[in-house]
Every structure is written in structure tokens, then in C-alpha cells.
Amino acid sequence: MLALIPGYGIKVLFPSDEAQHLVELYLREDVVSPAWETDATHIAVTAANGLDFIVSLNFTHIVRPWTVERVR
């Protein structure tokens, strides 16, 4: 998948200070389980960059109503 990035002009986003703060908040408030910290980071980077979508191969626990409401 990494080899596809240059050919499609995909911009890679890294966790900013704001995103890291959101990760800590999501974990502290039990929005996302600590076992899924990487997913909390994906959500936080999405939110911090004002993106509308997360594309994932497996995100069933991210779209649980509880998680969606708490992230909102």
C-alpha cells in the first residue's frame, strides 16, 4: 500500500499536537478502548484536519453508535 502513495499523490497526515490531545481525550473518556489506540489516532487525525471520512479495511468498533456520538 505504501508503494501506491507516490503514484496517486496521496497526502500522508501525521498526528499534530491537536490530534494527540484528542487521542488522549478519547482514551481518558473511554470513547475508544486503549487496546485500539491506533484507531483513536486515526479518528483524531481525521477530526484535527477537518476531514469528512475515514477509509479503513476494518473499523466496525469505530462506527459503533457509542463511539460516533462521543467523538461528535
Which terms would index this structure?
72 residues, mainly alpha
Structure notes:
- By secondary structure, this protein is mostly helical.
- Helix content is 50%, strand content 0%.
- The chain contains four helices and no strands.
- It has helices at 4-8, 17-28, 37-48, 65-71.
- The protein is globular, with a radius of gyration of 13 Å.
- The model has no long low-confidence stretch (mean pLDDT 86).
Give me the strand/helix succession.
HHHH
- Poorly predicted segments: none
Gap from first CA to last CA:
30 Å
Record field, number of beta strands: 0
| Main pleated-sheet profile | none
Number of H- or I-type helical stretches: 4
- Using the alpha-carbon principal axes, give the shape: globular
The amount of beta strand, in percent, is under 5%
Q: Quaternary status of these chains?
A: single chain
Class from secondary-structure proportions:
mainly alpha
Mean pLDDT equals 86
What is the radius of gyration? 13 Å
Portion of residues within helices: 40-55%
